[in-house]
């Protein structure tokens, strides 16, 4: 039975529509010629096609309310219902060491430029010699290799130089529809009661997609990740441009009353009664991933295929949450769609380690990080 049923909306098939039209016309003239090359048959084909398109549109309208299959504007609208805008491209960010006169304040939005000419702005007012957080001006795959962001273009008296001793975290492209569905799934509970799910949802809505929460309800045993008894530990990826005070306020607001917090950093914020509260949380460390792969393109149209493969892998790995392992077998699906790529070999490892096919473990205090330069792609025949 076609139409709206208890099982959902079932569109009528092309063949069923065609047979129904033919059976009704035969009532008036049993001599109708329904063959495809006859005038009557061609007319029926046109009518059938138009009606099947109408059924398809009705099916699309029905599915537009289902976040698992909705696409385009319908999917974006479903996100807005829960206060979640469609995921835009993320910005690269890095941490720099500062040199100059101690106590000198480097203002927020001071500008630096990398060796590749990309502009970065400081995220917060920072006093020398504290570390400086910088964020790329333009979202997307902006490189942040160690030692590349060093040129100061906003002069500040007392600030002489900046040193980038460690690589930053590369930004990402706008979310794919499936990635957005996954993010939305983690945020649908954020307006309800104070649960671990609500807390994680609210953190995701801040732009902290790489999060995990350890809720130790045992009264005597410390969890393997160090979370003490009757305590909650919130772990986030590197903050980038997100103010740590906002993170602490979010935790305080969503956390159960009287539940202590634990972590490797803290911020003092005020509760609804104006009382100062120290909120602890942890900032995860990056597990740098390296990927080696050899492919053969079976399609004649290979334009942009290598860049698309790299972008796809970057987007996947860098969207994984803390405590989410890098699964070797899942990477194949981010390679094969481009130019009908046939994978000859694909191996992964923590950067600097021996390549292989084992999954890369990521614990609750870590998150996976992949840089463009750590994807070693070889194309056979090129």
In short:
The protein is α+β, with helices and mostly antiparallel strands.
Radius of gyration: 27 Å
Could you give the count of β-strands?
A: 18
Beta-strand portion reads 25-35%
Structural class comes to alpha+beta
- Which range best describes the helical content: under 10%, 10-25%, 25-40%, 40-55%, 55-70% or over 70%? 10-25%
The biggest sheet amounts to: 6 strands, antiparallel
The low-pLDDT segments are none
SSE layout and pairing:
Elements: E1 3-5, E2 8-10, H1 14-28, H2 39-63, H3 72-81, E3 93-100, E4 105-106, E5 111-114, E6 119-122, E7 126-127, E8 132-136, E9 149-152, E10 159-163, H4 177-187, H5 196-205, E11 211-216, E12 231-236, H6 244-254, E13 261-262, E14 265-270, E15 276-283, E16 285-297, H7 305-317, E17 341-350, E18 366-379
Parallel strand pairs: 12-13, 12-15, 16-18
Antiparallel strand pairs: 1-2, 3-8, 3-10, 4-7, 5-6, 5-9, 6-8, 11-12, 14-15, 16-17
Helix pairs in contact: 1-2, 5-6
């Amino acid at each position: 039975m076609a139409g709206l049923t208890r099982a959902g909306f079932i569109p009528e098939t092309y063949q069923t529509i065609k047979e129904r039209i033919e059976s009704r016309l035969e009532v008036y003239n049993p001599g109708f010629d329904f063959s495809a090359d006859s005038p009557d048959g061609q007319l029926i084909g046109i009518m059938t096609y138009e009606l099947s398109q109408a059924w398809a549109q009705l099916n699309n309208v029905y599915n537009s309310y289902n976040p698992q299959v909705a696409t385009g504007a319908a999917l974006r609208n479903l996100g807005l219902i829960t206060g979640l805008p469609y995921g835009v491209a993320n910005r690269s960010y890095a941490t720099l060491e500062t040199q100059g006169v101690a106590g000198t304040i480097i203002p927020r939005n001071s500008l630096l430029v990398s060796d590749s000419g990309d502009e970065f702005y400081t995220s917060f007012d920072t006093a020398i010699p504290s570390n400086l957080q910088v964020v790329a001006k333009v979202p997307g795959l902006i490189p942040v290799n160690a030692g590349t962001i060093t040129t100061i273009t906003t002069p500040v008296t007392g600030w002489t130089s900046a040193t980038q001793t460690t690589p930053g975290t590369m930004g990402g492209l706008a979310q794919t529809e499936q990635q957005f569905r996954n993010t939305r799934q983690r945020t649908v509970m954020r307006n309800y009661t104070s649960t671990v799910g609500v807390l994680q949802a609210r953190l995701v809505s801040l732009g902290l997609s790489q999060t995990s929460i350890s809720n130790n309800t045992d009264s005597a045993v410390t969890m393997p990740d160090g979370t003490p008894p009757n305590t909650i530990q919130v772990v986030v990826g590197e903050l980038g441009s997100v103010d740590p005070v906002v993170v602490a306020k979010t935790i305080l607001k969503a956390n159960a009353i009287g539940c202590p917090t634990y972590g490797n950093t803290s911020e003092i914020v005020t509760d609804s009664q104006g009382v100062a509260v120290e909120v602890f949380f942890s900032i995860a460390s990056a597990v740098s991933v390296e990927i080696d792969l050899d492919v053969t393109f079976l399609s004649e149209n290979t334009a942009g295929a290598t860049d698309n493969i790299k972008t796809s892998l970057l987007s996947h790995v860098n969207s994984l949450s803390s405590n989410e392992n890098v699964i070797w077998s899942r990477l194949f699906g981010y390679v094969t769609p481009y130019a009908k790529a046939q994978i000859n070999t694909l191996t992964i490892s923590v950067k600097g380690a021996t390549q292989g096919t084992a999954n890369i473990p990521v614990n609750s205090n870590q998150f996976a990080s992949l840089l463009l330069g750590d994807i070693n792609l070889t194309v056979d025949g090129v």
